[in-house]
Specification:
alpha/beta; nine-stranded mixed beta sheet; three-stranded antiparallel beta sheet; 9 helices; 12 strands; 41% helix; 25% strand; binds arginine
Length: 251
């Protein structure tokens, strides 16, 4: 009887071990996954399609970078404000989110070469008298929390209201509860294309050029080198301009 118990115990140990081996094997296969953090509220760079899948210029770039390095891409969607923390925590490997390179951000994470040039613009009602940035004085300004547009308006010294999503800010404008939304150019073009009552006002003297880049955890040179090499290829081959033409509204 004792022998039987011993044998049973052994069988159990083997069974447990084999489960572990299977489990560990799966984990090993997963090490080739590259997790891209984004905030899919930023067309044409990242948005959620009707079927719940992610699409946009950045999503395509992420897929191409992963393929170029024999990795499987995984998109992790979260609030824009959480992205850099998620990178620092190791929750994601890279952030691709139409993210503008800023010295304050570069203190926390490392940025790749830039892959897109943008600027802030103002979205206003078709009949608005706002023609330049200084016309926003005394107006109801809407921005999106944590975006560079918020920082711009803050620096100009105007009061503003921050929204969680671009669509919320634009809704406020369309409803007449805000007079102007300050947001990135290509995203503004998308919102205006969807709402004929709105127009874009540019002011190159007030809003400086911005460069979008991919962020990695500080010191992750190995991944940064891979991303930079792939991005350079995508820029040189014209693939990124092609994606821009495919997803953005012609200006
Ligand atoms: N370019 C702006 C910034 O870096 C806005 C980016 C918003 N991106 C997004 N995926 N929601 O702050």
């Amino acid at each position: 009887m004792k022998k039987m118990i011993k044998i049973l115990a052994l069988v159990c140990v083997f069974a447990a071990l084999s489960v572990c081996f299977v489990g560990c094997g799966e984990e090993a296969a997963n090490t080739n996954v590259i997790k891209f953090g984004t905030n899919a509220e930023f067309p044409p760079f990242e948005f959620v399609k009707g079927d719940g899948s992610f699409d946009g210029i950045d999503i395509q770039i992420a897929n191409l970078i992963a393929a170029d390095n024999g990795m499987t891409p995984e998109i992790v969607n979260m609030e824009f404000d959480s992205l850099l923390v998620a990178l620092e925590n190791g929750q994601v490997d890279a952030v691709i989110a139409g993210m503008t390179v800023k010295p304050e951000r570069a203190e926390k994470v490392d940025f790749s070469i830039s892959y897109y040039q943008a600027t802030q613009v103002m979205i206003v009602k078709e009949d608005s008298t706002i023609a330049k940035a200084s016309d926003m004085a005394g107006k109801k300004i809407a921005v999106i929390q944590g975006y560079t547009g918020e920082v711009c308006v803050q620096k100009m010294g105007y009061e503003y209201t921050s929204f969680k999503k671009g669509t919320d800010a634009v809704m406020e404008l369309a409803n007449g509860k805000a007079d102007v939304v300050v947001i990135d150019s290509a995203t503004a073009a998308k919102y205006v294309a969807d709402n004929k009552d709105l127009k874009i006002v540019e002011d190159a003297t007030a809003f400086e050029g911005e460069e979008y880049a991919i962020a990695v955890k500080k010191g992750n040179k190995e991944l940064l080198d891979k991303i930079n090499a792939s991005l350079q290829e995508l820029l040189d081959s014209g693939k990124i301009s092609e994606l821009g033409a495919q997803y953005a509204v012609a200006e």
